[in-house]
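Feature request disguised as a bug report, sorry. It would help if multi-protein outputs had a clear separator. Right now it looks like this:
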Amino acid sequence: MAKTLELQFLNTEGKTVKINIDSPIDPVDPATLASAMDAILAANVFITTGGEFVAKKGARMIERNVSDIGLA
């Protein structure tokens, strides 16, 4: 099962923008995650078509199952 950590931010236009991290450490420490997201905001290195990242919106762990299907 593949896991992805999705970090959600708001940009200048108030739209949600996401950063996905493959194979994150699980379980995620909420305090460490909040600190990392604050560091991303402070560094101000990401710019979208809707402007800079301006606020944290949330985060979520996404799990995905992939099953191959044999063809006859």
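(second protein starts here, but nothing in the output says so)
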Amino acid sequence: MEDCLFCKIAAGEIPSNKLFEDDKLLAFYDIDPQAPVHFLVIPKQHIASAAALTEDDAALLGHIYAVIAQLCKKLGVDESGYRVVTNVGADGGQSVKHLHFHVLAKRSLAWPPG
């Protein structure tokens, strides 16, 4: 999508502090972190939100969660815990219309959020 911020980041048109990249995904640190560890994982393919996912995206979602687990282990937060969040729509707090997963760790995360 031409005007999508995350598509531009995935294409390398906008710089990011990359944590992981392969042919399907990009993980990078959030520019406004809400926890000592806060990174985003995005598919390189434009998908508007979790509401747009279908059964055909099952392998992509499995890959996303496997990469999140690997990165959390690498960052040493796999045992202390972390939160994975994806927002959908305006009421859900989605500010960029591209599927993305926030991973937050290294602080106590209250429930319910927000």
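Even a blank line would do. Unrelated, but nice: The helical segments are 5-10, 58-74.
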